[in-house]
From TrEMBL, chain A:
PANTHER family assigned to the protein according to its UniProt record, in alphabetical order: N(ALPHA)-ACETYLTRANSFERASE 15_16, ISOFORM A (PTHR22767:SF2), N-TERMINAL ACETYLTRANSFERASE-RELATED (PTHR22767)
Presence of keyword Transferase: no
Regions of compositional bias (Basic and acidic residues) in chain numbering: 604-615
Keyword Repeat: yes
Pfam families cross-referenced by the UniProt entry: NatA_aux_su, TPR_11
Organism whose genome encodes this protein: Phoenix dactylifera
Listed SUPFAM superfamilies: TPR-like
Region span, Disordered: 583-643
Protein name per Swiss-Prot or TrEMBL: N-terminal acetyltransferase A complex auxiliary subunit NAA15-like isoform X2
Automatic annotation (TrEMBL), chain B:
Family from the record: Belongs to the acetyltransferase family. ARD1 subfamily.
Xref: CDD domains: NAT_SF
Protein name according to UniProt: N-terminal acetyltransferase A complex catalytic subunit NAA10
Domain spans labelled N-acetyltransferase: 2-153
Family matches, as PANTHER family: N-TERMINAL ACETYLTRANSFERASE, N-TERMINAL AMINO-ACID N(ALPHA)-ACETYLTRANSFERASE NATA
Top-level taxonomy: Eukaryota, Viridiplantae, Streptophyta, Embryophyta, Tracheophyta
Length: 901, 210
C-alpha cells in the first residue's frame, strides 16, 4: 500500500494508517493533507483521508473522498477495503461485503481483509460464506489457535456439530502433552468445556463423559464442570451418580432451584407440570424434610414443598414458612407466595391462615399456640401480607383498610406506601396511586427504586411532565438533557410512549416507541466486536449462546410492545390525518399534492442545513476538548425534532407500519396481538388475502377469543359487500378465498348472523364475549343497535366462585368495563347507555377515577373540575411543564409539592 | 425463596432493567455483553419464584499486568422489594468464590459512594471488605468513592504440595488483555473500523472504568 509514492510520502502514508488505528485522527488528517499536497489524486491517500474523516463525524465528505480515491485507483485492494469499512461503519453490511470481495479479487490472501469479511459473515449469519472464509484463514495460517477455533465454530453455527468436534480434536492433536502453559489454563479449559458441550449436543454422551474424566485436571471452571457432568449423567440414566453430583452442587449453593429439580429427577420424583400422585407427594415430603435437616438455612427447602403439598399438610407447612418471615419483616413475602394463588384451594387456605395469624397477634401479641411475644413490627408485616392478599383477590376496600391500619401503626415503613399505591392502581385510582408513590419517594430521596416506581405511576396516570421531572432527579447528564435514552431505559420510554398515545399526542408517542426500536437495532450491532474477541478469549460457550440470544432478540417483550405501539400510531395517523398534523402541517394540507411535495423538499433541505450547522458546531466543541476521548460519544447531534412532529409527516403511514408489522410477524408469531394488528393494517390497505391470513392465524391461536371473533365477522362481512370481481387480480383473490373457505370450520354453510348468535350462546356469561357479539351485531344489522346495547347491559356480574371470608368478590375486571364503556361511547355512540354503564360500574369500582367512583380521588377532590377525567389531567400536567414559569397548582397537584428538591 | 444462580446471556436485559430501576450508575447493553463474554463465571442473578430477576452482581477481572491478579465488582443491585433476604451477600459470595477458584484472584475490589452507609456496612461487617483508598469525585455528581478491598487468599509466594489445588487459575493476568475495542487492531489499512466500539467499555453512567 502506498507503494506508488516516493519514500517520504510513503512514510507519511504509514503515519495516516497508524494514526487511524490509534484513533489520532487529527494527526492522520495532517499527514494525508501533506501527501495530497504533492499528489492530489493519489487514490489510497484520498481513501484513507475519507476513512479518517468518517471517524470525525464528517460523513458526506468521507464518502466523497473514499469514492474519488477508489475511482483513481480501482486496482487497489486498500481502496476497496476502505470503501468496505466505510459501509461497515454505517451498518450497510451487504455493500461492505461486496467491497471486501472486490478487494480480495485483487489480493486473495490478504489476512486482514479475510478476517474483516469473516466478521461480517458471522454478523449476517452467512454460515456458508463464514465457513469458507474461516477455512481459508486456517489454510493460510494454521499455526494460529484462533483460526482453528474459528473454523470449528463456523461449522457449529451451521449445525454441523460433529465436524466442529473433529476440528477441535485435530487442533488438540497439534498441542504438546503438557499444554497449556500456566497463563493459558483458563482459555484451554473453556475450549474443552465447549467441546464437551458439543459432544452432549449431538448426543455422544458416553464420549462426553469419557472426555470429562480424561481432561478433568485441565478444566478450570469446576462449577461448569460439575453442572455439565450432572446433566450428562441424568441423560445417560446414571441417576445414582447424578444424585451424588447434585448433592455436591447443593452443598456449594443451596439457593439454586435447578439443583433441587436435578435431584428430584435423579430420584424419579419430578413432573414438569407439578402434578404428583399422593404417594409421590409423600415421598417428596420426606425427601425435603431430610434436606431440611442438612440445609436448615436454605429457604428453598422450606418454600418448594408449598408447591406440591395439599390440604392440611399445605396449611401446616405454609404456617411454619410464614411465621419467621413475618417476625423478620420480609417485604417480598407476598410476592414469594403469589404463584400459589393459581390453585384456588390454596388461596382460600392462605386467607384463612393469614386472618388467623392477624387475629392472634392482635389479641395476644403472639402467634397461635405460642406464648413468646412477637415484636410490635410483626403486626405491621402481618397487616401488609393480609392487605396484599385481598388486593390480589380484588377486594380493594379491605386491602386498603388493612394497609391504612399498618401505616397508622408504623408510619415510617416506606414499603407500606408503595404497596398502598399499587393497590390504588389496581382499584383504578391512578392519580392517587401516583401521589402515594410520590410520598414514598419523598421519604428516601436517595433511593432510585422509589423514584422509578413513582415515575412509573405518574406515567400510568398520564402525568408525563411530572414523570420526566421526577426521573431527572437521577438522570441528569450535563444541563437539561437526561440520560434515560442513552442508557437504554426502555420501560420509561415505553410507558411514556403509551401515555402520549392515550393523550393523542402521536408525534411524541412515535418518538418514544421508535427510540425503543432503535435500542434493539443497537444491541444487534453490539455483537459485532465480539465475533473476533470471543475467539481470542475462548469464551465459546458464552459466545454461541449470545448469538442464539441475538437471533431471537426481537421477540423480547419490550420490542413487541414498542413495535405494536408504532403500528397503532401510524394507523391512527392514517385514520385521522388532519388531527395529527401540526400548524405547518395545516398549512400544508391546504396545498395541492404537487406543491405539498415541493414544500416538503424545501423543508427537508432547510433541516439538513440546520443539522449540518449544528453538527459542525458540536464537532468544534468536541475537538477542542480532545483530552477526554471517552466523552466523544456524549455529544450527540442536535435533536431537530424533539416533539416527533416530523415523524408524523410521512407520505404513507400504512407503509411505515408495515415495516414494523413484518418484524412482529417474524419474531412474535405466537402472539394474538401480532395478527390482530396485521388484520387491522391489511384491512386498511385493502390487502384482502393478507387480512385473511391474519384471520386464519387468529382462529388457529384462539378461536374463542372475542377479538378473533370480531376479526372473523368483520372480514367476511367486508368481503360480502364487495361487488362481483371484474379485474383479473380481483378474480384471482376471489378464487383463493373460495378455495380456502371450506377450511374455516366456523363458516360451514352458516350465515354470519348465525355464527355471531352461536358465539354469543357459547359464551353468554362472559362480559367481553357479549360485548364482541353485540358489536358484531351492530356491524351486521345496524338497525338492531338497541338490541345490541341490551345484550351488553344484560350481562350479569356474577360472584366469583371463591368463598371470601370477608365479603363477596365479583368477576368483572376494571379494564374490561372501561373497554365496554368506550365501546358504548365511540362505537355505539349512545350517550345514555354509556352513562348508565358508567353509573353501574361506579358501584362495582368505587375507587375508579374513570367511572367517578365515590371513593376515588376524582370525587374526593371534585371541588376542582380539572380532576374529573384522567386523560385530561395528563394533558394538563403536560401543558404545565411546557410553560415552565406558570406553575399554577391546581387541586390535585398538591401531591407534587415536594418535587422541587 | 429466591434462586441464586449464574447469569446467562438471556438474563442480561433483565439485569439491565434491574440496574436502571435501582442504581444511578447505568450501562449500555454492550457493557453487560462485554462482561459475560469475558468472564461468564462472574455474573450471578437472584431470580424470584415467578422467574423475575430481582438482583444481580456484575463482576470482572482486572487485566492490568502491573497489578496483582484481582477481581472487581462492577455493579451490585437488589430490588428494594426484595431486601432482608440476604441476597446481596449471597450474590457477592458467589462472585468472589468464582474469582478465586476460576481466575485465582488474590483480592477483590469495589467502589462505593461515601454516603451509602447501608452498602458500606454490608461490605465491611458482613463481607469483610476494608477501605483501601478514597477516590475524590469519582461519581458523576461529584461524590467521593471508597475504594474497598477484600483479600481472597493470603499471599504466600511458593506453596509446595498441599496448597496447589487452590491455584487452578492463574489465567487472570495472562497479558491477553485486549478489549473488544482493540481486539482487531491489525496493521496496514486493514485495521478494523471500530471507531465507536469504545461504547462497551466506557461506563457512560458517570463512574470511571479503568
Amino acid at each position: 500500500m502506498g507503494s506508488s509514492l516516493p519514500p517520504k510520502e510513503a512514510n507519511l502514508f504509514k503515519v495516516i494508517v497508524k494514526s487511524y488505528e490509534t484513533k489520532q485522527y487529527k494527526k492522520g488528517l495532517k499527514a494525508a493533507d501533506a501527501v495530497l499536497k504533492k499528489f492530489p489524486e493519489h487514490g489510497e491517500t484520498l481513501s484513507m483521508k475519507g476513512l479518517t474523516l468518517n471517524c470525525m463525524d464528517r460523513k458526506s465528505e468521507a464518502y466523497e473522498l473514499v469514492r474519488r480515491g477508489l475511482k483513481n485507483d480501482l486496482k487497489s485492494h486498500v481502496c476497496w477495503h476502505v470503501y468496505g469499512l466505510l459501509y461497515r461503519s454505517d451498518r450497510e453490511y451487504r455493500e461492505a461485503i461486496k467491497c471486501y470481495r472486490n478487494a480480495l479479487k485483487i489480493d486473495p490472501d490478504n489476512i486482514e481483509i479475510l478476517r474483516d469479511l469473516s466478521l461480517l459473515q458471522a454478523q449476517m449469519r452467512d454460515h456458508t460464506g463464514f465457513i469458507e472464509t474461516r477455512q481459508q484463514l486456517l489454510t493460510l495460517k494454521p499455526n494460529h489457535r484462533m483460526n482453528w477455533i474459528g473454523f470449528a465454530v463456523s461449522h457449529h453455527l451451521s449445525s454441523n456439530v460433529s465436524k466442529a468436534i473433529d476440528i477441535l480434536e485435530a487442533y488438540e492433536g497439534t498441542l504438546e502433552d503438557d499444554y497449556p502453559p500456566d497463563n493459558e489454563r483458563y482459555e484451554h479449559g473453556e475450549m474443552l468445556l465447549y467441546k464437551i458441550s458439543l459432544l452432549e449436543e449431538c448426543g455422544l454422551l458416553k464420549k462426553a463423559l469419557e472426555e470429562m474424566h480424561k481432561k478433568e485436571a485441565k478444566i478450570v471452571d469446576k462449577l461448569a464442570y460439575r453442572e455439565q457432568m450432572a446433566s450428562i449423567l441424568v441423560k445417560l440414566g446414571c441417576l445414582e451418580e447424578g444424585e451424588k453430583i447434585y448433592r455436591s452442587l447443593l452443598f456449594m449453593n443451596s439457593d439454586n432451584y435447578r439443583y433441587f429439580i436435578g435431584l428430584q429427577k435423579c430420584l424419579g420424583l419430578y413432573s414438569e407440570k407439578g402434578q404428583y400422585t399422593s404417594d409421590e407427594i409423600e415421598r417428596l415430603d420426606a425427601f425435603y424434610k431430610s434436606l431440611k435437616e442438612q440445609y436448615s438455612w436454605s429457604s428453598a427447602v422450606k418454600r418448594i414443598p408449598l408447591d406440591f403439598l395439599e390440604g392440611d399438610n399445605f396449611r401446616e407447612a405454609a404456617d411454619c414458612y410464614v411465621r419467621p418471615l413475618l417476625t423478620k419483616g420480609v417485604p417480598s413475602l407476598f410476592s414469594d407466595l403469589s404463584p400459589l394463588y393459581d390453585h384456588p384451594g390454596k388461596a382460600c387456605i392462605l386467607e384463612e391462615l393469614f386472618l388467623q395469624l392477624e387475629d392472634s397477634i392482635r389479641m395476644t401479641g403472639s402467634f397461635p399456640g405460642r406464648t413468646r411475644k412477637e415484636p410490635p413490627s410483626t403486626l405491621v408485616w402481618t397487616l401488609l401480607l393480609v392487605s396484599q392478599h385481598f388486593d390480589r383477590r380484588g377486594q380493594h376496600a379491605i386491602a386498603l383498610a388493612k394497609i391504612d391500619e399498618a401505616i397508622e401503626h408504623t408510619p415510617t415503613v416506606i414499603d407500606l406506601y408503595s404497596v398502598k399505591g399499587r393497590i390504588l392502581k389496581h382499584a383504578g385510582d391512578l392519580a392517587a396511586a401516583a401521589s402515594l408513590a410520590d410520598e414514598a419517594r419523598s421519604m428516601d430521596l436517595a433511593d432510585r427504586y422509589l423514584n422509578s416506581e413513582c415515575v412509573m405511576r405518574m406515567l400510568q396516570a398520564d402525568q408525563v411532565g411530572f414523570a420526566e421531572k421526577t426521573a431527572l432527579l437521577f438522570t441528569k447528564d450535563g444541563d437539561q438533557h437526561n440520560n434515560l435514552h442513552d442508557m437504554q431505559c426502555m420501560w420509561y420510554e415505553l410507558a411514556s410512549g403509551e401515555s402520549y398515545f392515550r393523550q393523542g399526542d402521536l408525534g411524541r408517542a412515535l418518538k418514544k416507541f421508535l427510540a425503543v426500536e432503535k435500542h434493539y437495532a443497537d444491541m444487534t450491532e453490539d455483537q459485532f466486536d465480539f465475533h473476533s474477541y470471543c475467539l481470542r478469549k475462548m469464551t465459546l460457550r458464552a459466545y454461541v449462546s449470545m448469538l442464539k440470544f441475538q437471533d431471537k432478540l426481537h421477540s423480547h417483550e419490550y420490542f413487541h410492545k414498542a413495535a405494536a405501539g408504532v403500528i397503532r400510531c401510524y394507523m391512527k395517523l392514517h385514520d385521522f390525518p388532519i388531527r395529527a398534523t401540526t400548524e405547518e402541517g395545516d398549512e400544508m394540507s391546504r396545498l395541492p399534492p404537487s406543491q405539498r411535495k415541493k414544500l416538503r423538499q424545501k423543508q427537508k433541505k432547510a433541516e439538513a442545513r440546520a443539522k449540518k450547522e449544528a453538527d459542525e458546531k458540536t464537532e468544534e466543541e468536541t475537538s477542542s476538548s480532545t483530552s477526554k476521548p471517552g466523552k466523544r460519544q456524549h455529544t450527540r447531534s442536535v435533536d431537530v425534532d424533539p416533539h416527533g412532529e416530523k415523524l408524523l409527516q410521512v407520505e404513507d403511514p400504512l407503509l411505515e407500519a408495515t415495516k414494523y408489522l413484518k418484524l412482529l410477524q417474524n419474531n412474535s408469531a405466537s402472539s394474538l396481538e401480532t395478527h390482530i394488528l396485521s388484520f387491522e393494517l391489511n384491512m386498511r390497505k385493502q390487502k384482502i388475502l393478507l387480512a385473511f391470513q391474519a384471520v386464519k392465524q387468529l382462529l388457529k391461536l384462539d378461536e374463542n377469543n372475542p377479538d378473533c371473533h370480531r376479526c372473523l365477522i368483520r372480514f367476511f362481512h367486508k368481503v360480502s359487500s364487495f361487488p362481483a370481481p371484474v379485474t383479473d387480480s380481483a378474480i384471482l383473490i376471489w378464487n383463493v378465498l373460495e378455495a380456502e373457505l371450506p377450511n374455516i370450520s366456523q363458516l360451514h354453510g352458516k350465515s354470519l348472523n348465525v355464527i355471531n348468535q352461536s358465539f354469543l350462546e357459547k359464551h353468554k356469561d362472559s362480559l367481553m364475549h357479549r360485548a364482541a357479539a353485540a358489536e358484531m351485531l351492530l356491524v351486521l344489522e345496524p338497525e338492531k343497535k338497541l338490541e345490541a346495547i341490551k345484550l351488553i347491559e344484560d350481562s350479569p356480574n356474577k360472584l366469583a366462585p371463591v368463598n371470601g371470608a370477608l365479603g363477596p368478590v365479583r368477576e368483572w375486571k376494571l379494564e374490561d368495563c372501561i373497554a365496554v364503556h368506550k365501546l358504548l361511547k365511540t362505537v355505539f355512540i349512545n350517550e345514555n347507555a354509556a352513562s348508565r354503564w358508567k353509573a353501574r360500574c361506579a358501584e362495582y369500582f368505587p375507587y375508579s377515577t374513570y367511572f367517578g367512583g365515590c371513593r376515588s380521588s376524582a370525587v374526593a377532590f371534585s371541588v376542582n373540575h380539572n380532576v374529573q377525567n384522567a386523560p385530561e389531567n395528563g394533558v394538563l400536567a403536560y401543558q404545565e411543564t411546557k410553560s415552565e414559569e406558570s406553575h399554577s397548582l391546581n387541586g390535585k397537584l398538591q401531591a407534587f409539592k415536594d418535587l422541587t428538591i | 425463596m429466591v434462586c441464586i444462580r449464574q447469569a446467562t446471556v438471556e438474563d442480561l436485559l433483565a439485569m439491565q432493567a434491574c440496574n436502571l430501576l435501582c442504581l444511578p450508575e447505568n450501562y449500555q447493553m454492550k457493557y453487560y455483553l462485554y462482561h459475560i463474554l469475558s468472564w461468564p463465571q462472574l455474573l450471578f442473578v437472584a431470580e424470584d419464584y415467578g422467574s423475575k430477576i430481582v438482583g444481580y452482581v456484575l463482576a470482572k477481572m482486572e487485566e492490568d499486568a502491573s497489578e496483582p491478579c484481582h477481581g472487581h465488582i462492577t455493579s451490585l443491585a437488589v430490588l428494594r422489594t426484595h431486601r432482608k433476604l440476604g441476597l446481596a451477600t449471597k450474590l457477592m459470595t458467589a462472585a468472589q468464590n468464582a474469582m478465586d477458584s476460576v481466575f485465582g484472584a488474590e483480592y477483590v475490589s469495589l467502589h462505593v459512594r461515601r454516603s451509602n452507609r447501608a452498602a458500606i456496612n454490608l461490605y465491611t461487617s458482613t463481607l469483610g471488605y476494608k477501605i483501601h483508598d478514597v477516590e475524590a469525585k469519582y461519581y458523576a455528581d461529584g461524590e467521593d468513592a471508597y475504594d474497598m478491598r477484600k483479600q481472597l487468599k493470603v499471599r504466600t509466594a511458593h506453596h509446595h504440595g498441599h496448597g496447589h489445588h487452590h491455584h487452578p487459575g492463574g489465567a487472570c493476568c495472562s497479558g491477553d488483555a485486549a478489549k473488544p475495542v482493540e481486539a482487531d487492531a491489525g496493521t496496514g489499512a486493514s485495521a478494523s473500523a471500530s471507531a465507536s466500539a469504545n461504547a462497551g467499555e466506557r461506563r457512560a453512567g458517570g463512574v470511571q472504568s479503568r
